[in-house]
Design brief:
- The relative contact order is 0.11.
- Helices cover 43% and strands 0% of the residues.
- It has a domain at 89-194: Cytochrome c-like domain (Cytochrome Bc1 Complex, Chain D, domain 2).
- It is mostly helical.
- The chain is built from 10 helices and no strands.
- Helix 5 (97-104) crosses helix 9 (182-194).
């Protein structure tokens, strides 16, 4: 049996608060759960709407019009065959040794032509014209790619090698970019001849002349038509 505590009477308002104890915590939990779901639904809705407005990555990659390139243009762009370079041999006879000496300064960091100078990074080039390739006995750093050329340093090979060393020796160690102008190569060869005892004669090669334009067909037809 419960007896009221007459010494400490309980206020009716306090009874109401005590009877509802714990309800605020439950309401807070419900509010947090509701806020989480609202945020989740909001993010999901933004993604769905954004997908309709912004194109997908695949659509962006394929947007545009295909451009067909004719096969002839592709062949020209690829450069199937490089243009044949002009030979320096026809210019050797008229080339200047002094001009060759000036151009040879580009090579002096690695090569010398004075027989008493010895070898540098590259072999001494005294008596190089007509000599066997990779034949300087005191120089032992020839690359296998250069040795594989074989034969002698003919004027044709000198011209080719001076124009682009990697053409004759693709895996050679020479890093020189080459002399692209035929008159300059002819002058350097003339300078090497001047520093070669008894150089072989230069082969006679006619200088290349520009191709003559063919007359127009209309002109030929007019010439064949008899005058009235």
């Amino acid at each position: 049996m419960h007896f009221p505590n007459w010494a400490n009477p309980v206020n009716p308002d306090d009874q109401i608060c005590i009877g509802t104890h714990g309800m605020p915590n439950k309401m807070t939990l419900y509010a947090v759960i509701a806020a989480f779901w609202l945020a989740f639904l909001a993010i999901l809705g933004v993604n769905l709407i954004g997908g309709f407005i912004m194109p997908h990555e695949e659509d962006v990659a394929t947007t545009g019009y295909p451009v067909e390139v004719p096969e002839e243009d592709v062949a020209v762009a690829a450069g199937d065959e490089p243009e044949e370079r002009p030979s320096a041999l026809p210019l050797i006879a008229s080339a200047s040794v002094d001009d060759g000496a000036k151009s040879f300064r580009k090579c002096q960091s690695c090569h010398q032509v004075d027989p008493t100078a010895g070898n540098g990074t590259g072999p001494n080039l005294h008596n190089v014209v007509g000599a066997e390739i990779a034949s300087v006995g005191s120089f032992g750093a020839y690359s296998d790619s250069l040795r594989e050329i074989g034969g002698a340093w003919t004027y044709e090979k000198l011209d080719d090698y001076l124009e682009d060393p990697k053409h004759l020796a693709p895996k050679g160690t020479m890093s020189f970019i080459g002399l692209k102008k035929a008159p300059e190569r002819a002058a350097v060869i003339k300078f090497l001849m001047a520093n070669t005892e008894n150089p072989p004669p230069v082969p006679e090669i006619a200088a290349e002349e520009p191709a003559m334009e063919e007359p127009a067909m209309e002109d030929e037809a007019a010439a064949e038509t008899p005058a009235e």
